[in-house]
């Protein structure tokens, strides 16, 4: 989905959101649809979404891993895509290990494993399609957000190294966490991936950052482990609304900074 800018004099700016890299993280595709619905319903009613849509192109990929997502309708715990390995013995590559950033280190080339990074960087059509699109649009896209679950975190580069990102302070999105606390009484932590979550290579956030998209985030939505991937339907609206608040807070900040 693509929302072209509505403002006539807007500069060339854009943001990207993808959902559903990991098949079993069902709140993620739900969030992309929530975001699209909010954009279409509250333009010219909500000041933040109006400002964003007037100033930026917004690209939304609702399900990056459609085969894996469909598979979870019967095998709920599946994470990877559904590509068949050369040996034919095991199925699936972890798309969030398949991007070309320090590829293979800390992940596994064994197709039977959950964090199989694939036979070579961008071997998977899903990762390659996203990478190609972002390469083509890298001069306009200033903000990359990829939506996962769970653990209530805003992760930013780097994950593949403990080095600090050059704009680390700009990526410390305390305003987003504070607003969620204030409006929804929920706690989100934030920080660089390697130190905050775990070190790991081949992720889309680090790759996008190294491409030149200086605001790059992995959101881990609700919850913090009570239901985990099996977040009940009654929690969808709360999970999506708080993540929406964070997306808008960060997008407005990026507009102000760039
Ligand atoms: O491990 C992942 O891919 C993400 N966590 S999840 O539980 N949704 O699988 C975290 C990704 C953080 N970023 C990088 N590792 N680059
Ligand atoms: Zn994930």
UniProtKB/TrEMBL annotation:
Keywords assigned: Carboxypeptidase, Hydrolase, Metal-binding, Metalloprotease, Protease, Zinc
One GO CC term, this protein: extracellular space
GO biological process, one term: fibrinolysis
Cofactor(s) the protein requires to work: Zn(2+)
InterPro entries xrefs: CARBOXYPEPT_ZN_1, CARBOXYPEPT_ZN_2, Peptidase_M14
Molecular function terms, GO-annotated: metallocarboxypeptidase activity; zinc ion binding
Active site positions: 220 (proton donor/acceptor)
Top-level taxon in the UniProt lineage: Eukaryota
Domain (Peptidase M14): residue spans on this chain: 1-254
Family stated for the protein in its record: Belongs to the peptidase M14 family.
Protein name in the entry: Carboxypeptidase B2 (plasma)
Organism of origin: Maylandia zebra (zebra mbuna)
């Amino acid at each position: 989905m693509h929302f072209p800018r509505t403002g006539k004099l807007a500069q060339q700016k854009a943001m990207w959101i993808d959902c559903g890299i990991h098949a079993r993280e069902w709140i993620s595709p739900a969030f992309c649809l929530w975001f699209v619905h909010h954009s279409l319903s509250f333009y010219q009613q909500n000041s933040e979404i109006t400002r964003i849509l007037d100033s930026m192109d917004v690209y939304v990929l609702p399900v990056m891993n459609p085969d894996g997502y469909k598979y979870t309708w019967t095998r709920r715990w599946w994470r990877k895509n559904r590509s068949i390995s050369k040996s034919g013995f095991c199925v699936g590559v972890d798309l969030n290990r398949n991007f070309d950033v320090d590829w293979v280190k800390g992940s596994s080339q064994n197709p039977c494993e959950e964090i199989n990074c694939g036979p070579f960087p961008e071997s998977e059509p899903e990762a390659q399609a996203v990478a190609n699109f972002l390469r083509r649009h890298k001069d306009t896209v200033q903000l990359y957000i990829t939506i996962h679950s769970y653990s209530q975190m805003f992760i930013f580069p780097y994950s593949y190294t403990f080095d600090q990102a050059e704009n680390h302070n700009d990526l410390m999105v305390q305003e987003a966490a504070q607003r969620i606390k204030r409006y929804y009484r929920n706690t989100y932590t934030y920080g660089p991936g390697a130190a905050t979550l775990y070190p790991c290579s081949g992720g889309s956030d680090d790759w996008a950052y190294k491409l030149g998209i200086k605001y790059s985030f992995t959101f881990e939505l609700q919850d913090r482990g009570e239901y985990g991937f099996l977040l009940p339907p009654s929690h969808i609206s709360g999970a999506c609304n708080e993540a929406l608040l964070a997306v808008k807070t960060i997008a407005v900040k990026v507009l102000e900074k760039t």
